[in-house]
Amino acid sequence: MAIRRILIANRGEIALRIHRAAHEMGIETVAVHSTADVDAMHVRLADHAVCIGPPPATESYLNVANIISAAEVAHCDAVHPGYGFLSENAKFAEIVEAHDIKWIGPKPEHIRTMGDKVAAKQTAGELGLPLVPGSDGAVSDYDEARKVAAGIGYPVIIKAASGGGGRGMKVCEAEDQLETLMQQAGSEAKAAFGDATVYIEKYLGDPRHIEFQVFGDGNGNAIHLGERDCSLQRRHQKVLEEAPSPVLTPDERNRMGMICADAMQKMGYRGAGTIEFLWEDGEFYFIEMNTRLQVEHPVTEAITGVDLVREQIRIADGKPLSVEQDEIAFIGHAIECRINAEDPFTFAPSPGEVTYYHAAGGMHVRVDSGLYAGYRIPPYYDSMIAKLIVYGRTREGCIMRLRRALEEMVVEGVKTSIPLHQELLRQNDVLSGDYSIKWLEEWLKEREG
Predict the structure, then answer these.
(1) Domain 5-104 architecture
(2) Can you give the residue ranges of every domain in the chain?
């Protein structure tokens, strides 16, 4: 039976994005929300809304029992998890499917495999994706770690097998630091993720973060939709993303894209996924795969013309991919700025009431946001309140349009990261595309000094 009603197991701009795609397909939506989000835009616009708990995410957006109950009470055919929260929780996906509700996402076994960094690396290697030199799996003791590190050469990086966001990661410059840093990484990983397991990789000095968007139909057919450059990061959190990358040639894009698509075909992957790489000196190194929609998916939509959320829903409904590889063309350039409710340079959160809001507009300007004047930004969740996505025929034209759009966009009552983006677009390295994953933090330190 075709999907007729989707429960959106998320909040904020991504919940609104899913609602819009569903409505354009003639599908009803059910918004779930905490008591803190009763006035949120996605709750106001959805066909139905169900409160699933108090403000803390653990009691609402991460409460599996309450979400499943809401889906059953509201007679939903499918659940879309968005990103964050339960989107990469294999157990949740299994529970959804066990209740005869369609899961708008990858197969649970693929979520589980790619969510474990050690298993993901092993699987990626078997699928033909290029790997960072490192341990074959988890490293359990110091003697083993010492042999691995000596074999690949210092510096090395010690990483938590579970989790992310920079926690449980330590860079080791020499052998005399190794034992201490292993213990620290393991302790951090245990505290953050409940798993002290770590592994070791070659530490790349000044790489870029380049990721490929992939899609599979679950039956062995898969495509790629090009890459996104997400190298402007602070504390491993992306700040600005663009597509295509300023450093890749069309031949490199095609070669790596097809390697990624072939890997997904072998895997029998279903739905949207992103394969993330570090890129340095023309070489790609697999770091992880996200088995969900990405925050930065709109830049891919802008240069390909493919609605990724619509494609997710179609595939979950048992339909084939709507486009074939040779039908996808990469035209123009797109940049996304993440607008957060925080001090633009100290990054201190700034929740509170939005007293005035004006979204940027004009040709090829898109704002994904649930903001409105009078809305109170809650302090309980991620600080991102909007995404500004701009498209241009060239990168230079895109940047000029983005500057203009940032000037137009007004959010009063709280501090936002708009001034940070305006200043970034005045920096020669950003304008020329000559930056790495370390660039933003180094620039911020220089600015403070």
Answers:
(1) 3-Layer(aba) Sandwich (3.40)
(2) 5-104, 133-202, 208-448
Q: What is the DSSP letter of 325?
A: G
For residue 314, which of 393, 218, 231 has the smallest C-alpha distance?
Answer: 218
At residue 392, what is the residue type?
G
CB 351 within 8 A of CB 378: yes
Architecture field, domain 133-202: 2-Layer Sandwich (3.30)
Active site residue 44: no
Which residue in 17, 228, 292, 395 is the catalytic one? Answer: 292
pLDDT (tens digit, 9 = 90+) per residue, 83-100? 999 999 999 999 999 999
pLDDT higher than 70, residue 163: no
More confident residue, 137 or 348: 348
Tally the C-alpha atoms within 13 A of residue 422's C-alpha that lie toward its C-beta: 13
Beta strands in 382-427 (DSSP E): 384-392, 410-412
CATH of domain 208-448: 3.30.470.20
Pair of tokens at residue 194: 């409940």
Distance from the first to the final alpha carbon of the chain: 61
**Interatomic CA distance for residues 339 and 324, integer angstroms:** 34
| 295, 83 contact by CB (below 8 A) | yes
Tell me if 133-202 shares its fold with 208-448: no
SS3 52: strand
